[in-house]
């Protein structure tokens, strides 16, 4: 037998109403639940099948359990966790937090409706539109932002993060990480480990941390004279390198010509491209460089 049930919370005299679903009898029924919270800060638990759970107003916590659930937080700073199953979740207005365990969950947010965060234990997750923050949980290793200015936070695995448009902040921890900013004025912080950086276009800022880091450039537009990148902690004794080898240094000749470093004065590294614009990179603190070793041409 299949049983459909709906519950509506109430909030009388402005008292906090909290609804908690625990168990049902008899146990041989299949339950499809529709639960509506009240105007307070509700806690709502779904069942084992495909439930519809609505927090409505208030700072709600909604847990789907198993099944392919439909969850809406409504107005307020909500916590939405579909748990098992392929769930559809929408936070609504407010600063909402989503917890997901598989990449094919369906998440939606309206534009300009708060600062919304996703905590994922699913690998290769891409932030949907209108979400701002992405956290990698457990041992998952990779994630991608969207066209907003995102904050992408890693873990101790070897992370690969890719920002898209927007002025992104990407922070990783203990692994040998790859941090790609793409467009925008990005801040990339690799933490410990031998990390690889590419900020893309925009005046980006790099924090390499400990380890032998590779600061990579694929075009002079990655750090032009009028919008140069900033490397805050270049340390040649740790094995840090500035990698200019992907850039063609002579646009007047066929093929890919090796780069020639122009000058390094007062912490400003300049490279000349024949037939094109120059590249300029700032090294904070003007550390000593061996141009034949520390720069990959």
From TrEMBL:
Keywords: Repeat, Secreted. GO terms for cellular component: extracellular space. Pfam families: HemolysinCabind, Peptidase_M10_C. Signal peptide: none annotated. InterPro entries: Hemolysin-typ_Ca-bd_CS, Hemolysn_Ca-bd, Peptidase_M10B_C, RTX_toxin/Mannuronan_C5-epim, Serralysin-like_metalloprot_C. One of its GO terms (molecular function) is calcium ion binding. It is found in: Secreted. It comes from the Bacteria. Its main location: secreted. Residues 180-250 form the Peptidase M10 serralysin C-terminal domain. Its cofactor is Ca(2+). This is Type I secretion C-terminal target domain (VC_A0849 subclass). It comes from Nitrosomonas ureae.
């Amino acid at each position: 037998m299949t049983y459909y049930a709906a519950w509506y919370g109430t909030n009388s005299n402005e008292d906090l109403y909290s609804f908690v679903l625990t168990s049902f009898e008899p146990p041989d029924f299949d339950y499809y639940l529709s639960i509506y919270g009240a105007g307070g800060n509700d806690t709502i638990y779904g069942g084992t099948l495909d439930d519809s759970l609505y927090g409505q107003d208030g700072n709600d916590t909604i847990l789907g359990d198993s099944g392919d659930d439909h969850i809406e937080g409504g107005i307020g700073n909500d916590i939405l966790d579909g748990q098992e199953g392929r769930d559809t979740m929408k936070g609504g207005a407010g600063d909402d937090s989503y917890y997901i365990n598989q990449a094919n969950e369906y998440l939606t947010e309206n534009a300009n409706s708060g600062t919304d965060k996703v905590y994922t234990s699913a690998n290769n997750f891409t932030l949907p539109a209108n979400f701002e923050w992405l956290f990698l949980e457990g041992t998952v290793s990779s994630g991608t932002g969207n066209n907003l200015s995102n904050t992408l936070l890693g873990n101790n695995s070897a992370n690969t993060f890719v920002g898209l448009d927007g002025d992104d902040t990407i922070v990783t921890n203990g692994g040998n990480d790859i941090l790609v900013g793409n467009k925008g004025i990005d801040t990339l912080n690799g933490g410990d480990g031998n990390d690889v950086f590419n900020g893309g276009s925009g005046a980006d800022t790099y924090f390499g941390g400990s380890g032998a880091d590779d600061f990579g450039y694929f075009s002079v537009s990655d750090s032009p004279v009028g919008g140069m990148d900033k490397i805050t902690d270049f340390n040649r004794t740790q094995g840090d390198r500035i990698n200019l080898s992907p850039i063609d240094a002579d646009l007047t000749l066929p093929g890919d010509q090796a780069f020639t470093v122009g000058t390094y004065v007062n912490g400003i590294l300049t490279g000349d491209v024949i037939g094109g614009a120059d590249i300029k990179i700032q090294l904070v603190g003007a550390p000593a460089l061996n141009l034949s070793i520390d720069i990959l041409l």
